[in-house]
C-alpha cells in the first residue's frame, strides 16, 4: 500500500459539530489545505499541481478532507487501484486508466490517475470531489480549488485563500526542527537543543538588516503552526517589545513583559526581549 500512511491528528478533524465538511480549499504549489476555514491548515507532503490543464491533488488527503477516513480508503497493489468509500458513493480509480468507477458505474475522464514521489496517487480534484457529492470550483486568479457540498451555496473562503497565499514561500531555505526557514533571513534561529519536534526558537535582530523583512520572515515561520489571528497578535506584540527596547530609559520606563499567545490548535508562542537588541519567539505545543 504505497501511499496510505497514518493520517496526522489534525487530518481527522473533518467534521464540525458532527456536520459534514462545509468547505475545503487547496492552492497550487502550497503543501497545506484548509477545512471549514480552520487555520493553520493541514500539512500534506505533495502540493497540488497542474498537469494537462487539470489540477491534481493527493487522493488520500482530498478523501480525508471530504470525510473519508483512512480505514475507508484501500489500495490494491495488483491492479494499482485505489478505493474510497464515501457517504454518498464508493469510488475506484486505477493508475494510468482514464476513468472513475462510482458505485460500479464507469465514467470516462480526460486524464488518468498518476503516482508521484513519495508514492502518492494524484487525481484531478473535480472527479474525486464530485464523485463524493461535492461541487468544485477553480479560481484562476488565486490558483485555488474550492470544494463544498452539492446543492449548497458556495461558501466564503476568502480567509482560507488569504492564509494559503501567505503560506507561499518565494525562496525556501533550510529546515530547522520541521520548520522551513526563509532563505537569507536576518533572523537568528536556534538550530540545536530541541526536545520536541514541534518547537522552535528564533529572534528578530534589531540591529541586523531589514527589520520589515525580518518581521515577514518571522510571520512565515509562525504561520506554519499558528492561525492567522494568533500570528498577527504575536507579531504586533513583538513590535511593542521592539519599541520598548529602543525607547526605554530611567526617565521613560516601559513595561513590556514576556507574553504567551495560544492558538486554538494548542500551539503557543512566547514573545519577549531576547537579550540585547533582539525580540525572541519561542514556539511550542502546549498539549
Give an account of the 3D structure:
Helix content is 19%, strand content 35%. It is elongated and about 80 Å long. A five-stranded antiparallel beta sheet has the order 3-2-1-14-13, sandwiched between helices. Strands 6-7-8-9-10 form a five-stranded antiparallel beta sheet, covered by helices on one side. The chain is of the alpha+beta class and 287 residues long. The chain folds into two domains: 9-166, Copper amine oxidase-like, N-terminal domain (Copper Amine Oxidase, Chain A, domain 1, 2-Layer Sandwich); 172-285, no CATH class.
- Separation of the first and last Cα atoms: 32 Å
CATH C-level category of the largest domain: Alpha Beta
- Low-pLDDT segments: 1-19
Shape: elongated
- Main sheet attributes: strand count, strand direction, barrel closure: 5 strands, antiparallel
Mean pLDDT: 84
Q: How many DSSP E strands?
A: 21
CATH architecture of the largest domain: 2-Layer Sandwich
Per CATH, the superfamily of the largest domain is: Copper amine oxidase-like, N-terminal domain
Q: Helical content, roughly?
A: 10-25%
The H/E string reads EEEEEHEEEEEEEHEEHEEEEHHEEE
The tally of domains stands at: 2
Q: Largest beta sheet: what is the strand line-up?
A: 3-2-1-14-13
Q: Total helix count? A: 5
Structural class: alpha+beta
CATH fold-level assignment of the largest domain: Copper Amine Oxidase, Chain A, domain 1
The radius of gyration is 22 Å
Q: Work out the strand percent.
A: 25-35%
Summarize the structure.
The protein is an alpha+beta fold.
Amino acid at each position: 500500500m504505497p501511499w496510505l500512511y497514518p493520517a496526522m491528528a489534525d487530518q481527522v478533524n473533518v467534521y464540525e459539530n458532527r456536520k459534514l465538511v462545509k468547505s475545503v480549499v487547496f492552492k497550487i504549489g502550497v503543501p497545506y489545505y484548509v477545512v471549514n476555514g480552520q487555520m493553520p491548515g493541514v500539512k500534506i507532503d505533495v502540493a497540488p499541481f497542474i498537469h494537462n490543464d487539470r489540477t491534481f491533488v493527493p487522493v488520500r488527503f482530498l478523501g480525508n478532507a471530504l470525510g473519508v477516513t483512512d480505514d475507508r480508503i484501500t489500495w490494491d497493489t495488483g491492479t494499482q487501484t485505489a478505493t474510497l468509500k464515501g457517504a454518498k458513493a464508493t469510488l475506484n480509480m486505477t493508475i494510468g486508466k482514464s476513468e472513475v468507477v462510482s458505485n460500479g458505474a464507469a465514467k470516462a475522464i480526460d486524464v488518468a490517475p498518476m503516482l508521484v514521489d513519495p508514492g502518492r496517487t494524484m487525481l484531478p480534484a473535480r472527479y474525486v470531489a464530485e464523485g463524493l457529492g461535492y461541487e468544485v470550483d477553480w479560481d484562476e486568479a488565486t490558483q485555488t480549488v474550492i470544494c463544498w457540498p452539492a446543492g449548497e451555496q458556495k461558501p466564503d473562503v476568502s480567509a482560507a485563500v488569504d492564509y494559503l497565499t501567505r503560506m507561499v514561500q518565494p525562496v525556501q531555505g533550510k529546515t530547522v526542527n520541521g520548520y522551513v526557514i526563509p532563505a537569507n533571513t536576518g533572523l537568528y534561529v536556534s538550530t540545536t537543543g530541541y526536545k520536541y519536534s514541534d518547537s522552535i526558537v528564533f529572534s528578530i535582530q534589531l540591529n541586523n538588516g531589514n527589520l520589515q523583512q525580518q518581521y515577514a520572515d518571522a510571520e512565515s515561520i509562525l504561520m506554519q503552526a499558528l492561525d492567522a489571528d494568533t500570528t498577527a497578535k504575536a507579531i504586533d506584540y513583538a513590535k511593542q517589545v521592539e519599541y520598548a527596547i529602543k525607547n526605554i530609559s530611567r526617565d521613560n520606563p516601559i513595561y513590556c513583559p514576556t507574553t504567551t499567545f495560544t492558538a486554538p490548535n494548542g500551539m503557543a508562542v512566547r514573545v519577549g526581549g531576547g537579550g540585547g537588541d533582539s525580540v525572541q519567539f519561542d514556539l511550542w505545543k502546549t498539549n
